[in-house]
Each structure stands twice: as structure tokens, then as C-alpha cells.
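Hi U.,

Before I forget, here's the chain from the pilot set. I'm dumping it here mostly so it's searchable later in email.
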Amino acid sequence: MKRKHYNFDSKHLGNFKVEEESWGNVTLFPRTSQLPILHKALEKEFSAPLSQLVSRVNGLSEDFWKIVRRATAFGFCHYINSGRPDKLRLFCLLDSNKVAKITIVQQMTEHRRFGAIHRFRFYGGEDFFQEIRLSGKRLIFTDHVLQRFQQRAHDLLVEELGAFLNIFFNSCVVGMEVNRGQALILPNHDEFLAFTYKERRTAYILTTCLAKDYVHDLKTRLPAKALNLHYGESFQPPQVRNWNPLADMVRYEADWRDKKRLEPVGFSYDKDWPEICNNFQPALRAAGYNSDSKLYFIDDIPGPHTLATKPGQTLLKFDAAYLAGEYFEETCELMAKNLRFHPKYPRPLTKNDVGKLFTLLIAHDN
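Structure:
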């Protein structure tokens, strides 16, 4: 098998080829031994034109500057460096102190008789080399998933694999019944994508990607799958969430039933990094973020997905008591329309019944 190699596209390291590594039926791109060299050059390219307030953000910095660095690193990785001729993919991730890092995506491909399977790791320096897991299990993607994503996902603003990684690893994940099977549902602009899967003891194996047009049956039911993307092998489901899985599930079902034709999304951006890199801070201030803003990991679990709050904006804590009080009438209406939502519960519902349902929603991840 001929190994892939490409000329590294960086003024900070000339005459260097990005190479593929292989052993047996496994290939890795880029080669593991090259990651520190490539990362050092890319870090220089990212940091050189930044203001010191952004380039020197660390764990002790206030959250506003962490939010600015997150936006800046995201722009550099996902827009400025989309479609690189050397085929490198960059990804913005936050470390455990919520400081954004430039990471290089390493794609590990195992070539099997019935098709290739892929895993992804993210290199951000000697102390940061992560494989992102889903509620304690490894994520494995079949080649079919990537092919169908390219064919079916709408309004991809950047190169296809970069768009796939961004959608999958920067989203809240819920599991729903789709076409009489199980799927992970993730948002993409004004639509959703459904990723069917096989669940194993240690892994989720993603098998295909369905756009809304390919979904002929989708239902909101409890107990629900509310899953977390996270760093590390260990995982403990949260008892309190800072996002609302039920609201996402209900919205996906409503969007699917609506059958509304999607409007194309347009987006343009300047690739002159030195020219635009310091525009993120004033743009965030104009959007209402300041020194009183806060940055959080989803469900307070270190991982790829975060949320930022503006001054005066309260981070909602979705526990059973809160949800039962806030969504009692909506839940009763939903369950009255869909008797299969949770058939074991009697009608009419009491707030205690709804509280038990939301306990399942918050804590259940299987």
C-alpha cells in the first residue's frame, strides 16, 4: 500500500512532508512522531499575530478572555485552516482549565474486509492528546458514515471531514428511535442529522448518516438517551444537566413532522489570519459578553462542547424538580398526543409522575 504524503503548508516549517503511518491493516494520518513538530509550527502561526491578552490566556484568566480565546482558536482551526492542501485537519478543544488549544486531528483507519472503520484523536501538545468518548464508550465510525454524511448533510460551510468533526464533537447528543432503530441525533444549522449505531460493551459503532428526508419514523420517548462527549475513559452520568435534552428531542420531532423546506445557509470569511485574528474580542463585546461572562463545560464534564453565558444570564440547572414544575403542562400535552411516549404511566399525570419521568431523563444514559 502506497503511503500518503503532502507538503506541509506553513511558513514556520519549510520543506517538510506530512506523512501517513501504517502497520498491518491500520493507517494513521498524520504520523504520530510528526505531531509535535507540526503542532509547534501551527501554534506559532496561530499565536504570532494575537494580542498578548489572548495569547497568554491560562487557567487563572477570567472567563471572558477564555471565551475570546475559544472563539479565536475556533476561527483559526475551523475556518482559516479548512481545506488545507496538506490534508491536515485542525480542531479547537479546551483543556481541563477551559483554555482553548489548537489541536491536530489524527485519523486512525483500520482496513477490514467489509470496509474501513475510523477513530479520531486530537493532539494539542505533550500534555494534551485526547480521544473523545461518548458516555464512557469509544466512538468508531464506519466509512459508510463519512460517505453518507458527504452526500446528505446540507449547507456544509467548510471541507466535508472538517464539517463532520465539528458537527459531531461540538453538539449535545441525544439518542432517539429512528426508522425503528436507534440513532444519535445532532443539529446542523436548521436541520438535524441522525447517526444510526450498534452499541457494544466498550464502543458505539456508527453505521450511517441520515438527513431528515431519509427519516420515515421518529418519536420522542422516555426513558431518554442523553449522552455526554468527554475526555478520558472514566465517566459518571451527571445528576443535574445544564442543557435540556427533552426540549431538543421535542424540537427534532417537530422539525421532522413539519417537512419544511430548508433555506440555504450562506457564509463567507476572510482567510487572512493576521488581518482578522484580533477582531473576535470586539465582536464578542458587541454581542454582549464582558468580564461578567462565564464559560462552562456541558454538564460540568470536561470535553469538547462548552457554553458561554452573558452577564445576567443564569445557567439553567435541569434537575427533576425544576423540570417537573416548569414543563408539567407541556409534558402532559405531549404524552396525551403520544400514548407510546411512556405507556407505563397512568393518566392523568401528577407532578410526582412527571418528576419521576424527568429523573429518568436526566440520569439515564443507556
